[in-house]
What does this fold into?
Amino acid sequence: TQSTRPQRLLSAVQKNATRGDPCSVVKAIDQFCRSKEWAMNVGDEKGCILDSVVSELNPTTVLELGTYCGYSTVRIANLLPPHAKLITLEFNPDFAAIARQVIAWSGLEEKVQLVEGASGDLIPKIKQDFGVQTFDLVFLDHWKDRYLPDTKLMEACGLLRKGSILLADNVICPGTPDYLEYVRSSPRYESQYFKSHLEYTKVEDGLEKSVFLG
Ligand SMILES: O=C(NCCO)c1cc(-c2ccc(F)cc2)cc(O)c1O
Ligand SMILES: [Mg+2]
It folds into this structure.
């Protein structure tokens, strides 16, 4: 039976990265995606912008929407202070299975809780089931048509507080026009666009950083 691209990405990590070394896991995935097969990780260029936002914020609670193979999960978790928590939601069970192994290889499983399911179903359960009241940082990288409804849902569930940061991938490619319009026009957000490129390509893409004003 044929292997899948996430399975081949995991094999590349297990072959080329050192167990317990998150940086080597990130490097191995970027090398695989540049030299062997493109995959929809946030990538090295946008990843550096992600790193700078995380490092500047020093968040204690992080929510990631869309785990895929765990690349950005590892990038974020690697920068978190001790006892900080990253909850990452993934709808696709095949992606989740690979991501668990990538996260384990990096040695960061203590900081990460991967939950399988639909973000729209899980978000309302976070306070009661995962013991988190509000998030310092939310990284949106899941289905592009879910960015806006899930943002409104997080607001309604009281998961955002004054100063919470939303960082959204792919606001240009594939694009999230309704989400961009919302965070850029709403008086409840202060938004900033970080121009970059679609992972491993020359195509324009970027990250939108939005501060919730409460
Ligand atoms: O769908 C995406 N993520 C949610 C599913 O896990 C996604 C897609 C693309 C992409 C794909 C196909 C193309 F032609 C261009 C972009 C890129 C990304 O960074 C993404 O996060
Ligand atoms: Mg993305």
